[in-house]
Write a structure and sequence with these properties.
Layout: E1 2-9, E2 11-16, E3 24-29, H1 32-52, E4 59-66, E5 74-77, E6 80-82, H2 89-95, E7 103-108, E8 111-112, E9 117-118, E10 125-128, E11 138-143, H3 147-151, H4 157-173, H5 200-206, E12 211-213, E13 216-218, H6 222-227, H7 230-236
Parallel strand pairs: 1-4, 1-7, 7-11
Antiparallel strand pairs: 2-3, 5-6, 8-9, 10-11, 12-13
Helix pairs in contact: 1-4
Length: about 240
């Protein structure tokens, strides 16, 4: 059983410097319908994990809405910012302190689609493996998105994708060999995206250790999920 926590920031109020320009303010709110879309997708994440591992891996989750604004972002490059563990530290320490959960997710209003303003960033989501920085949990941030984005894939897929980055990091540390680029490696290994279920064919093989490369099976074996208890994950960190 993996314990997951979703932190939802309904307000963003930051000033960031983009390139050599003066700092620019971004003040965004997460509309209720956008929050509903994200939560509906997130609730599909445990079902997807269970389905793709034939029940070997299961997710127990909690969702917390954060009242305070998100007032800082971490700069990853000249034109890329994200809510790192430094920016969510208050909630991370309160709700996701070491041992309380295995995976932390952050939903944040990167975009204001009505005003057409967006904090410069990379992909829809960004994830890192467990470390002291993350209080021993895998950590992923996912931005708000148009309603169509949540529905143009398997229910819960974006959360699964980001989670797998951290999970692959964990199992790689335990000696399992991952496919190149782990959760991002579908096309490299000959998989094609389905218009209805996204990349889940690849994720199923990744989560069962059956991604084949040069005659070798790569990924997380089904048996590894049962062996990776909460206690053993904590010890591995």
């Amino acid at each position: 059983m993996w314990k997951a926590l979703l932190l939802i920031y309904v307000e963003l109020d930051v000033r960031v410097r983009i390139g050599g320009l003066p700092k620019r303010r971004f003040h965004h709110y997460l509309p209720s319908d956008a929050m509903d879309d994200a939560i509906e997708s997130f609730r599909g994440f445990p079902d997807l994990v269970r389905e793709l591992t034939s029940g070997a891996a299961t997710i127990e989750y909690d969702i917390k809405t954060i009242v305070r604004p998100l007032t800082s972002l971490t700069q990853r490059s000249e034109k890329e910012f994200w809510p790192s563990p430094d920016d969510t530290r208050t909630e991370l320490d309160q709700s996701g302190s070491s041992g309380k959960c295995d995976s932390v997710f952050v939903l944040w209003p990167q975009h204001n689609f009505e005003r057409k303003t967006s904090v410069p960033g990379g992909a829809w989501g960004l994830a890192i493996g467990a470390s002291h920085w993350t209080n021993g949990a895998t950590y992923a941030a996912v931005a708000n998105a148009p309603a169509s984005a949540w529905r143009n894939e398997a229910r819960g897929e974006v959360w699964l994708h980001e989670w797998l980055h951290g999970v692959c990091h964990h199992f790689a540390q335990r000696g399992f060999v991952m496919p190149e680029r782990d959760a991002d490696g579908a096309e490299l290994h000959g998989y094609q995206r389905s218009p209805t279920i996204g990349w889940t064919d690849y994720y199923r093989d990744l989560m069962s250790g059956t991604v084949v490369k040069n005659g070798r099976s790569l990924g997380i074996s089904i048996g590894a999920w049962a062996e990776s208890s909460v206690g053993s994950r904590t010890a591995a960190r």
